[in-house]
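>> Question from a student workshop board

For tomorrow's exercise we were told to take the sequence and the ligand below, predict the bound structure, and bring the output to class. My setup keeps failing. Could a helper post the expected result so I can at least see what it should look like? The ligand is 2-acetamido-2-deoxy-beta-D-glucopyranose.
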Amino acid sequence: MGPIRRILCLPTSLSSLVFFLVSATAPGIAAAGKDPALTDDSQCGCYLNKGNSSTYFTYHRFFDFRSLPQYAGVPAVIQDAESSPDADPTSDYFKRDEWSSFWLLGSWNNSNGARPDATVTMVNSPNNVYIEANTEPDPSSQTYLTLRTQRLSDFQTAAEIESASSGFKYLSLRMRARTVGAAGAITAVFTYRGSDMLADVQESDLEIRTADKRNLVHYTNQPAYTDDGDVVPEATRKATMPHGLDWTAWAIHRLDWTPGLTTWYVDDVEVARIAFQAPRDESNIILNAWSDGGRWTGNMTRFDAAYLQVQWLELLYNSTDPDETKRSRRRQQQDGDGCNAVCSIDETPELGTPVLLWKNGPSQVNGAGGRSVSTGSVPTWGVVVMVLFAMELLI
Ligand SMILES: *[C@@H]1O[C@H](CO)[C@@H](O)[C@H](O)[C@H]1NC(C)=O
Ligand SMILES: *[C@@H]1O[C@H](CO)[C@@H](O)[C@H](O)[C@H]1NC(C)=O
Ligand SMILES: *[C@@H]1O[C@H](CO)[C@@H](O)[C@H](O)[C@H]1NC(C)=O
Ligand SMILES: *[C@@H]1O[C@H](CO)[C@@H](O)[C@H](O)[C@H]1NC(C)=O
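>> Workshop helper replied:
Here is what the output should look like for this input. Compare the format with yours to find the bug.
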């Protein structure tokens, strides 16, 4: 914990004393004792995320589907397998650079026998990814993104979005989402690094099986089974949603992939963590809604459908993709790997907009971890504040 973070969570009377001292006499650490100030990504050198898997990330993206009425509309399902993959994007939203520089709309099918126990042809179609008006009573958003899967006469139409970059290496992904619809489908968000060899696949999953009890979520670091079909129990956890929630209700699902560990949260409550087989190498990000009549998904009844609906999706990440710096609205004046301005998307009063936690002194260019106040310029009141921190730490 750095000094400013410490101030942010100071409890009780000491904090008011610190607040008084700081606000009365300390222009230098003016941020201390106050709520951190809203800023924008161009001012952030890195981001510190909150929680048991707290760590630093370089990049931030926020996809907000809550107020897009100009793009809303539910496209009729394409009934024919052959023309499904070639469907156009369902609205101009998916042609906007903000979207298309980051995501691809999936159009592959399972004819390659990817899952040997599939009993139904599954075809992904861009037509199943769309912006939808929220018609629930007292809606918590005007619109959301929907990924649709439906069982048709002779195939299963499905939806997938995949990151254009396969260079993600560590991330914290959060989305406000729900799954609705009939049994026999999977909705999922995961990191993915494919391989022809099952044993070499690297993948951290959050999966909802619509045939399950409605408060059950599956978290897995794949592979969870061997070539011989044996289950690998250490790879997977079944967790119950906290606060009595069902996955049909809006909740913030979060997946943190950090070195050697994947941690999952629902509404800020840690629900699972798996160190076993945590992905090691750069990966894609994928969201999907699908079924293939196999053992994992189950069979969907003809003309039934299920949906993954997302109000917003926010990402903190690192990347090995050389184009990433160009693509992101990153702070221009970086000092090598250093992080002069540490931001947060957790402490913010405005979803999607970061706040500045602290700035490191001009001499602090020693990486994201370097976050001490540069001691050469700490005047007397600073020392008083630091003594109070020390006392606080002892209490
Ligand atoms: C499935 O994919 C294969 C290989 O890409 C392609 O040849 C075939 O036309 C596709 N079938 C459908 C129904 O999309
Ligand atoms: C952090 O992990 C501990 C168990 O190791 C757990 O009790 C606690 O609830 C977790 N914190 C959060 C914010 O989920
Ligand atoms: C799904 O239905 C097919 C026949 O249509 C059947 O062969 C298969 O066993 C069923 N799968 C499950 C998981 O029930
Ligand atoms: C992300 O990159 C920054 C800058 O290189 C580094 O300080 C930080 O530790 C990285 N985060 C993770 C989770 O590896």
